[in-house]
User: What shape does this take?
Amino acid sequence: TTVEIVDIAGLVKGASKGEGLGNQFLGNIRETDAIIHVLRCFDDGNVVHVDGSVDPVRDKEIIDTELQLKDLETVENRIKRVEKIAQVGSDKNAKVEYQVLSAIKEALLEGKNARSVEFDTKDEQTAARNLFLLTSKPVLYVCNVDEGSAATGNEYVARVREAVKDEGAEILVVAAQTEADIAELETYEERQEFLKDLEESGVNRLIKAAYKMLDLETYITAGEIEVRAWTYKRGWKAPQCAGVIHTDFEKGFIRAQVIKYEDFIKYGSEAAVREAGLLHVEGKEYVVQDGDIMHFLFNV
Assistant: This one.
């Protein structure tokens, strides 16, 4: 199972109006499920900053402003199309969409992101989701620090934490240079020695944080031919998860045999887990847990 991370060209002031690589950048970011915003949080005279100084909060705000301006343009164009229908007609969907658009427009004009607006009803939530706005995407801030600050962060990181405290976004502290050095080591043992003060590589933490941000978890199937990991949305029940493999598995779902990952590691084999009485048989209402090892029984 994988998470695909795409490096998108940097953004400059005026990108929402097409400056620099603005249109290309905004087109690329629209296709993503979430945004990982890497902020420079280190001093190095040999690495020139495009704005002449290191200020991660300013960098974050530039991106926010450009995405908000683009979303405002999208929202205003949409409002023009639905306003009359909502006011004079009996189209319920148009009225809901107009209310959603108006609420988001107000937030954007206040310099807030679309994701900061909460909607109570399912219809409103669906309408907001269907707008595919840039600032409605979940965000993970990655603070790129010097090697000495990888474990504890630094003053720049503290400023970022303060700036995003009301966003509900996660912050990850990573030393990119250290990660590059780790990637060049050939053996697992060498990498573990390198990591003894950091506990876990930044890349691993980034992948886990991305899965958490997107509400994703993983279950495992194991057979004679292969062992595979499958990605599903947190909270899904067994039939839905079976459908990830094939739609027939969901349609004809009967039951699932489940082994907890920790139990398999402890006992070492499926047979030993069975003998210990820890193989569970679950029905249609079972909510799959991260790391479950599953065998589905179905009939089409």
